[in-house]
Amino acid sequence: MTETTSLRTAVAGVPLTDPRVVRAIELVWREAELLDRADYTAWDALYAEDGTYVVPIDGSVEEFDDVLNMVYDDTRMRRMRIVRMTEGHALAAVDAARTVRTVSRFVPAVVSDDEVVLRSAQVLVAYKRGRHDLWVGDVEHRIRLSETGDRIVRKVVRLVDSEGAPPAAGFLL
Predict the structure, then answer these.
(1) What's the CA gap between 137 and 158, in Å, rounded?
(2) CB contact set of 140 (below 8 Å; sequence gap of 6+)
(3) Which of 87, 104, 160, 171 has the greatest count of CB atoms below 10 A from its CB?
(4) Whole-model pTM?
């Protein structure tokens, strides 16, 4: 029984069944669904106005302002990316991959009444031009809890092969 309990208890000592953690996990799953459906406008609405979306090259970096990243989007850049991916004139929109992702192995790192930091693993399969590509990474979501709606404040996707040459994506991680 101790082993089962330890698997359900996170690093922060908060069980995965804590209502705040459940809310955060549900938001992450909702985000994955919207991304796989390429509903980028609804996806963007999950973010706080000060929210950032980051895919670093160096997986050990914690501060992203002064380093090279694959993606480092604040609200303005995130919305510009969405326009490029949905207008139909950019290669990312015309030749976009279809994706199916699984997000699992949730570990709450920080839990308070107004914020949850949740670590997870993501496996994404992208299908494009008769080929499947696998994108695998550790993900960290910082989620602001609010009565008016929970929002993503920061999402960091640390790809396991981030220092290699990634194929053209045509989708969001």
Answers:
(1) 5
(2) 109, 117, 118, 119, 120, 154, 155, 156, 158
(3) 171
(4) 0.87
